[in-house]
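B., you asked whether I could sanity-check this one before it goes into the benchmark set. Here's the sequence:
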Amino acid sequence: MSGILYVVGTPIGNLSDFSPRAVETLANVDFIAAEDTRVTLKLLNHFDIKKEMVSYYEHNKRQRGEIICHRILNGENCAIVTDAGMPAISDPGEDLVALCYELGIEVQSVPGPTAFATALAVSGLPTGRFTFEGFLSVNKKSRREHLEEVKDEKRTMIFYEAPHKLIYTLNDMRKVFGNRNIALVRELTKIHEQVLHFTFDEAIAYYADKSPKGEYVIIIEGKKQDEAEEITLEQAIALAKSLVEKGMSINSAAKEAAAQTPFKKGDIYKALI
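And here's what the prediction gave me:
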């Protein structure tokens, strides 16, 4: 009988965020597929878990994925973990999950923190609709193409970035998006967690004489409706009503409609109550 692949979320900084179910799962599976076995070993030691680990990362995912699936098909249960957060989100774990489905292997989730959702929640920018863009390519042409594809995106956008590339990325984004409002969220759930609110110009100036530290989530406001489009108040109210019909609160719907139109939240809110 075939085993199961468990997709287990790990803490993004604070080990206290690791759920009891996740601890139980790692303790009970036959082996663990880890992005970096050294990082995962620290987690296992903290929770006094002794378990076989195999490395599974970007550069060995094809060969190692087949080996992992072969073991699962022979009845072993496996947990896949990443260094921090949910496997398969901007992570090679997505390939292993897809391969399991191709081979008829059952996949179960053991959810945990995810940096992009956590960062968005504390960013102060509109959360009703958003798009997660992950990491930009290191290839200059691909980076530019990616940014050009989303420059007219009206939803809030979320990117990940490493500290040594942050300033380079902020400059690239400024050239394509203009001087929008952003939030830079760093060191989530750690001692030095920080949410910084800037425009792109302010952020670039801030880091002119500072070295970025920690992993960053970049939250960017969506493109405002062009005045030339002549959005009416009635259209803004209709947008808010459609959001309410989808389950959003009146207050949140008015806030989101105001973010996407030239009208004030208060004017939209009054029309909804």
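One thing to flag: The mean pLDDT is 94. Otherwise nothing jumped out at me.
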